[in-house]
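// run 5 | inverse folding | seed 20
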């Protein structure tokens, strides 16, 4: 009975774990899952300017940003018939996952991303969503965090230091790898400290021997005289 209860509790966790990383992340290169040229701050657009689904594509069109990725529909952004096999506007820091009360509907927090990939992020925890988005969006994710905080002064945002971004920049893509790196680093530090202590000990011994032989030499000289 206890085993059955444990299985019932663990099954949702196991199911969620099987969804991460998403199948689209495994199948496609990160740059295929979004259109980098649609990140408006990179074009000089005000990162704090309000934006929504209806305004985003007209802004892209007005700034001469064309759809060139593999998910374009007849050379255009947008999804006819409300399908997801195309580019959708995606909130980089999204409302449904992240824990904050900031204004997320700003130009510095939206980008065109593959609709099917975005939909597979839905069942995941924010920790997993954040980790996958960091790997896909790269430095843009970190910029979006700064934009959200800067454009909503005083808002509560739990990801002020998106540590996984920096780890990913160092090619550290999981907590397990981080633990391994820390262990190796600490081991080398311990070895270095031991070597330093040994060197200091031998130095003191050599100094004592030098002092001893110097004293012996002085005593011999006095006896000789």
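// decoded
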């Amino acid at each position: 009975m206890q085993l059955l209860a444990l299985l019932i509790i663990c099954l949702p966790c196991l199911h969620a774990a099987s969804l991460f990383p998403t199948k689209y992340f495994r199948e496609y290169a990160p740059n295929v899952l979004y259109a980098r040229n649609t990140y408006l701050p990179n074009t000089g657009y005000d990162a704090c300017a309000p934006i929504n689904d209806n305004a985003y594509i007209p802004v892209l069109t007005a700034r001469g940003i064309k759809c060139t990725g593999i998910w374009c529909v007849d050379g255009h952004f947008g999804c006819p018939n409300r399908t997801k096999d195309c580019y959708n506007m995606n909130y980089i820091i999204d409302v449904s996952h992240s824990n904050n009360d900031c204004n997320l509907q700003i130009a510095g927090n939206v980008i065109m991303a593959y609709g099917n990939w975005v939909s597979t992020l839905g069942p995941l925890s924010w920790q997993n969503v954040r980790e996958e988005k960091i790997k896909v969006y790269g430095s843009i994710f970190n910029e979006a965090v700064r934009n959200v905080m800067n454009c909503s002064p005083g808002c509560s945002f739990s990801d002020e230091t998106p540590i996984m971004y920096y780890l990913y920049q160092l090619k550290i893509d999981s907590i397990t790898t981080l633990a391994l790196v820390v262990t190796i680093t600490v081991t080398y530090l311990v070895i270095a400290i031991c070597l330093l202590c040994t060197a200091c000990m031998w130095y003191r011994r050599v100094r004592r021997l030098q002092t001893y032989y110097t004293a012996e030499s002085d005593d011999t000289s006095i006896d000789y005289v």
